Amino acid sequence: MLPIFEVCEDILTALTSSPQVLLHAPTGAGKSTVLPLEILKSGVINGRVIMLEPRRLAARSVAARLAQQLGEDIGHTIGLRMRSETKVSRHTRLEVVTEGVLTRLLQNDPKLEGVGLVILDEFHERNLQADLGLALLIDSQQALREDLRILLMSATLDNQGLSQLFPDAPVITSQGRTFPVIREYHPINPNKLFHKEVALAAWQLLQQEHGSLLLFLPGMGEIEKVRAELALMVSEDILLCPLYGALSLQAQQQAIQLAPEGVRKVVLATNIAETSLTIEGIRLVIDSGFERVGQFNPRTGLTKLVKQRISQASMAQRAGRAGRLEEGVCWHLFSEEQAERAAQFSEAEIAQSDLSSLWLSLLQWGCHDAAQLNWLTLPPKPAISSAKNLLGKLGAIDAAGKLTPFGQQMAALGSSVRTAAMLCKAQQSKNQHVIQLAALLVAIIEEPPRQQDADLRYYIERPTEGWCKRASVLCEQRVSSTIGKQDALISEWLPTLLATGFPDRIAKSRDNQQRYQLASGLGAMLNESERLIGSPWLIVMSLWQPENMADARISLAYPVEIDRLQVDCPSLFNKQETVEWDDQKGTLLAWKRLQCGQLVVKSERLSNPDNTEIRQALVYWLKQNGLQQLNWQENALQLCIRCTLAKQYFPDINLPDFDEAALLDSLDEWLEPYLDGITNKQKLQQIDLASLLVNRLDWQQQQWLERMFPVTYRAPSSHDVSIHYALDKPPVIAIRMQEMYGEKANPTVAQGKITVTVSLLSPAMRPLQITQDLGAFLARQL
């Protein structure tokens, strides 16, 4: 009997009395394949049950196991909803759904009419859509559906975070059904090739133990390298099966099925195989200790795949896979000390992802502030700002940040924001061929080709069966593989559709070779063998950011004629008349430019720029290059220092700031009005800064400053001597010694708060003594 049966009554009781229930059930407990059926049998839930699985393969596998136990096919009591597949009927009582399906169900019906329970399975994976779905569920539960129940199930719950989110939720723990696993640590040599060391370890374990092997690797690249290496080492009775998210469902299904009789299997997998998947016949596990995760950069708008150490929770999950069927063995390819130093849990996907689709979903929900909802991890503000920026460029939100009608259409589609924009643009054409073309483009972009060639033209003319099938689902009509060969349709609509979804990815060649600059300002490169090299303009659909490289890499793009794009998409272009400083010539130049984002499409020189533009150009240049470009005479510097000291010693006195940052920030107030006729550096150097700066003070402030921090000191000889102020030391006067006879103490400023240092000079103006105790020094001289 599976361990979950021991706590079933506790779970059912909790569901009758608590709006949220937390279940901690390790691998093999039966939480995914047994508990849902027990809930249906019990009748404690009024209405249908929705169960979210974070991965498509897991959703299909779980739905099949549940239906099999009932002696039915999927689509009767047990339903399945995935991106490209829906099998439900009027008899369906439990629906297994994936990723964004739950969000779409909530958006279409915030009350979830007819649903009594939502189960979030494998919640420890902290999938972005699961976090979003939970936040919307809690909001619906609190505002609309007090009777709705939420069950969070996980192998390794973050109890601290969940207890803060659900302080009153009962936590139920089940034992896992696993056999003993012998865990050993076999660190590989970091100075040798990773894939060779891993392949050697796998071969050694296969030699020592019986059974099939599950080998965890960071990503697709490592999987293919280790697979090729192992193929040279193992016998023909060992089947090598890759398993990662980009594979077709059919190929993934082959990896998890039981190997034929007399054949052992090595499944080379990413962390897709850590939890909910049951892979038949596995009793050996090798854990490389690494995973590859996406880290979104809000500044560039790109996601970089980073190889990193896994958490302790992931280590336990990976090792547990060896004990599903019988006593197993797990080799960790790192030291026990490294395991102890690892983080306890992996970071949530929401904390390091592109949140443009999430923000669009929140706006559709009617939420304009993420903090209004209850989150296990609050979406980071920089990523939200980046999302708003992109949605604005796509036309999904207006200047006030509210959804436009176009944005509402995008949100209803449930696709990524870029592909949704393309599909909406196609729908506006009301042309079935255009809609089919857009659907095919989306299918290719969603599952990009793994070949080296980045030229979209090749793939649009030769679409795979999978792309055509996905496109047919998207536009709800059959998409022919010949759609991409209709020249008139392609030339008229393809650039427009791509520019609608990727306006910031229009790219201009920087050197007529591999290097490009994007409309967003980013730099990007093509591979050396690309057919696209030399194309003056591209629209880039797929970019990836290599580790330790400045420029992104282009992996899918389409060449465009910029003049034609300007006619078809005029909103992407703007005309500007600007005046700029030419550093080499030391003068101002005026330009009229046609721009696409930060890219200059055309430019021509203007001979008579407007005075206002000249002043604004100079201010912009100074803000970029700093105040040191001006001629700072001593009286101007001293004024700034005196005002700064005044604010330090008299903080209650209302004076403007005179530090460099404040002066740069207010150039348009104190400098710009006096820049008429300044067209070169020579004239710029002639500006009397002191007279302009003093105008920042009103008459009373000027008089007060002169009393507290005077420019000069009147000596006993009636001679006025300049006071030199500094920020890091006391002010100084330099004066002949005989002129100070009769003075009993050093002068002071700031109502006696600051003592002035006196530098005494000889009649020939040579330094004799520097003192802060003038009276004592002069007394000794007499």
TrEMBL record:
NCBIfam families: DEAH_box_HrpB, PRK11664.1. GO terms for molecular function: ATP binding; helicase activity; hydrolase activity; nucleic acid binding. The keyword Hydrolase applies. InterPro entries: CON_HrpB, DEAD/DEAH_box_helicase_dom, HA2_WH, Helicase-assoc_dom, Helicase_ATP-bd, Helicase_C-like, HrpB, HrpB_DEXH. The lineage of its organism: Bacteria, Pseudomonadati, Pseudomonadota, Gammaproteobacteria, Enterobacterales. It comes from the Bacteria. PROSITE patterns: HELICASE_ATP_BIND_1, HELICASE_CTER. Keywords: ATP-binding, Helicase, Hydrolase, Nucleotide-binding. This is ATP-dependent RNA helicase HrpB. The keyword ATP-binding applies. Pfam families: CON_HrpB, DEAD, Helicase_C, HrpB_C, WHD_HA2. Gene3D superfamilies: 1.20.120.1080, P-loop containing nucleotide triphosphate hydrolases (3.40.50.300). Residues 205-366 form the Helicase C-terminal domain. Residues 12-175 form the Helicase ATP-binding domain.
